[in-house]
Write a structure and sequence with these properties.
75 residues; single chain; mainly alpha
Length: 75
């Protein structure tokens, strides 16, 4: 989780990813943030986040993002 938090904080240092639970629902992250996050995650974790993975539930919390990463690493 610390590794993921580091990536997220590089993209949006102003957001407390450990406490926020509605990153998408409360419009804390916008589409440009998501594109940046997806690119960094794909590169860092050697995964491929597809369009069907771009559901708000997958990006509302850091834990949800980590769950998505782990799921894609298993595939």
């Amino acid at each position: 989780m610390e590794e993921l938090l580091g990536i997220l904080k590089e993209i949006r240092p102003d957001v407390d990813f450990e406490k926020e639970t509605k990153l998408i629902d409360d419009s804390i992250l916008d589409s440009f943030d998501i594109i940046s996050i997806v690119g960094e995650l794909n590169e860092h974790y050697d995964i491929e986040i597809d369009v069907e993975d771009l559901e708000p539930d997958n990006f509302n919390t850091a834990e949800a993002i980590l769950t998505l990463v782990k799921k894609l690493q298993e595939d």
